[in-house]
Amino acid sequence: MGMRLLRFRMGLRLWRGVLKVLLMLWRIGRRIYGLQYHHEVTHSPKGMETLKHFLFDVCGVSADLKMDDLMEEEIKVINKTVAADEHVICAFSGGVDSTVAATLVHKAIGDMLHCIFVDNGLLRYKEQERVMDPLLRETCIYLLLV
Question: What are phi and psi of 102, to 5 degrees?
Fold first, then answer.
């Protein structure tokens, strides 16, 4: 398959593919592991099998994680970090990361969150509307367009 094992700094070992893309890394003698994988593992032969093996057998992750539990835990962390009278500014791109971050912070602190979406003039056609409309229509998150 064109894979090869390489030595790396600090005892890390790498496994790279034909296109020199990092696939896995680990450190001998310590529990340090990394795996790069296409996010749509259903398109990869044995993709789910590989991820399950990595998560459960190699890393020792348990399969009892629930998204609601994770969300509640993150909201607690946000509430511990942000004082009740503090405002928070969120740079909002409309991508998954900033949308999830804004949603979590808004659930934690409500209207003390102020999201800012910058139209820098280089956005794709109608991207401003595609970003702002669903957020304004489906949430109560304050969103300022600059």
Answer: -65, -40
CA dist., res. 91 & res. 99, Å (int): 10
Return d(Cα 91, Cα 112) in angstroms, integer: 14
| CA 90 remoteness from chain centre | 16
Phi (first) and psi of residue 76, to 5 degrees: -60, -45
Q: C-alpha 11: how far from its chain's center?
A: 27
| pLDDT recorded at residue 105 | 95
Classify residue 112 as exposed, middle or buried by CB count within 10 Å of its CB (0-12, 13-18, 19+): middle
CA angle 103, 104, 106 (to 5 degrees): 65
**What is the DSSP code (8-state) at residue 82?**
S
Question: Does the model's pTM come out above 0.85?
Answer: no
Angle between helices 96-109 and 67-81 (to 10 degrees): 60
Task: Show the CA angle centred on residue 97, arms to residues 43 and 62, nearest 5°.
Answer: 60
84 by DSSP, 3-state: which?
coil
pLDDT of residue 22: 47
